[in-house]
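agent> step 3/5: call structure_predict on target 'Transcriptional regulator' (Streptomyces tsukubensis).
agent> reason: downstream docking stage needs a structural representation; sequence fetched in step 2, passing through unchanged.
tool.input:
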Amino acid sequence: MATIRDVARRAGVAPSTVSYVFNGSRTISEETRRRVQEAVDALGYHPRASARTLRSSRTQVIALAVPRAAGLQRSVDGRFAIDVSDAANALGYDLLLTTSQEKTEGLRRVALSGLADAAVLMAVDLEDARIGLVRELSFPAALIGRPTDEGALPWTDLDWEAAAALAVRELVAAGHRDLVYLSPVEAEVAARRSYALRGIAGAGAGARESGRRVEIVRAVAEPAAMTRRLHALLRPGPDRPTALVVQHPSADHVVASAAAAGLRVPEDLTVVVLGALPGDAASRSLPRVELPVERLSKEVVRLAVAAADAARERPENEPRQPGPSATGVLLSPVLLPGDAPLSASRTHQAR
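tool.output (status=ok):
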């Protein structure tokens, strides 16, 4: 899709001149205006109607971009939608929800529509294509997720690496010898989703620090296939794990599969959940690191609004500053106790 720079190049003018044509902030000759309009028509360029092009206007709307497949139900998405909405309302903003699976094109439509002052992006990949898009369009945005380029856009996230390493260290200190890290589903890992890869990296770091081997097992989305994988993992034998660290939303599925394999949780198998939703009935009896949804929501809305304010104040012909100016807010994990201690049973230790 054409950018304002493409229009300027075709019309033989500066990008700032194209902006002046759109927003009427300076007197432009009819000849120049005609050349810009011809370039716009030829390239199919659609200028935004807010922020940079009509700088005095405010929609008082924040867009929440949550890419999701049709029919897929994830409780975490609903919790974030509610808490981000509450945080936005507290600052005088309404929320626009977009769930397009086309992550970049869906966001492009929102950015060019002029319906929102800024966006909050979820399901962040380590190298997320949406980062380059919003920077190209000069559309203010903030991320729930920690990208590889931490200076590209404002972001906030739970420290998944620290959470995984903490869980492994605590289990080893409690006497566990055979540990398995159940990662998010294979599709999330393959997509290089930030939280998934950082969690796996943290499990590896915890293993190295503790001098123990931790087997990394990827979850699968299809319930029957996940059950088969867990049954194979928990089958009787000298290598059966004594503890599972689960970075997978279905903690109840793991517990049910353990029961089907003849194991009691926590007597025979200790299960630690990473990213549990606060108040979730399936995981509140288990040791866990909860996902601080409310705090993350407040932080990301604050960052998005600050980015929108900064964009309005920046002179039209001043380019966006690269990298280091962006802000990252990383939240430290807290391991909450379950109904039973982490310590391995004597049977565990004998193995």
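agent> step 4/5: record observation. The chain has three domains: 4-43, 61-157+294-331, 160-291+335-350.
agent> proceeding.
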